[in-house]
């Protein structure tokens, strides 16, 4: 059930509703909106009568939610959520671009890439320190050492850091460095990890599982929201289909579908989606055209030497060209992109 407060409801009204929910033995989840606050009720087994709440002051209506995700759904919040990442907003008019190497490999590799990311006008540096690889014999990441390099790159460039948390064990170390914690496709259904990041307040990028439906993605987001972390950004990164000529099939349908079903921002990762560098720009533009709130792009100063995902990584100069095209596309769509940094 969702209890929707009136526009002019006071803090005390909200508190009274929360107390009522809790004395009934359920959990209350407050979702603030520009127009009104919604309070999600979870933990109930059967139906709850709306009269429990509609008689309280400041309550507009109490509506049952038929969808399995209550807090991620549009019913809970009519407006799009904007996620504040240390002053950079994701989900508003400005597109967020997150770029960097698949894996952090060395200081030279990371800082060269970071400078290129910044110069092109992106505000977020990505780089995996803990890598969940399909083969146990593949490079598993620089781990803690990689986190140290990410911290240094942030200090030097001011870019916000996006890096993946692979498991609950290493989550505290990742959370210590990351401005946004990435949950990878292979971990979308790792419910302990979702609960772990749900207990933090750090923004989360939740990537869609390789074989997960959009509803399953929203349910995974719900795990995080239900623990009180409302700072969730979804990411479409391609799903497995019968088509073998690309690495995955970038399901751009997910963007308008998610926009209809949920208030959460969604970004697109064309690098993993198509899996080859010469298709990345086209799919990035398509993602923006579909309504994505941002992009995640893999870049590397020497893609042929990359320890992971080199084939889909753009060289810095190609990334600059991509950004120029995205900037023009953004204008057409009445959105914007941060300016290039003039040297
Ligand atoms: C990555 O971002 O490098 C990555 C491993 O992505 P995914 O989880 O989407 O495969
Ligand atoms: Mn990768």
General description of the model:
With 343 residues, this protein is of the alpha/beta class. The chain folds into 2 domains: 2-63, Phospho-2-dehydro-3-deoxyheptonate aldolase, domain 1 (Alpha-Beta Plaits, 2-Layer Sandwich); 83-332, Aldolase class I (TIM Barrel, Alpha-Beta Barrel), CATH 3.20.20. Helices cover 34% and strands 17% of the residues. It has 11 helices and 14 strands. It has helices spanning 11-23, 51-54, 107-119, 144-157, 171-177, 191-198, 214-226, 254-261, 270-274, 277-290, 316-332, and strands at residues 2-5, 27-31, 38-42, 59-63, 83-85, 88-90, 96-100, 124-126, 160-164, 180-183, 204-207, 232-236, 266-268, 294-298. It has an 8-stranded parallel beta sheet with strand order 13-12-11-10-9-8-7-14. A 4-stranded antiparallel beta sheet has the order 2-3-1-4. Strands 5-6 form a two-stranded antiparallel ribbon. Strand 7 (96-100), helix 3 and strand 8 (124-126) form a beta-alpha-beta unit. The longest helix has 17 residues, at 316-332. It starts with a strand and ends in an 11-residue tail after the last helix. The model has no long low-confidence stretch (mean pLDDT 96). The structure holds phosphoenolpyruvate and manganese (II) ion. Residues 102, 272, 298, 308-309 line the site of manganese (II) ion.
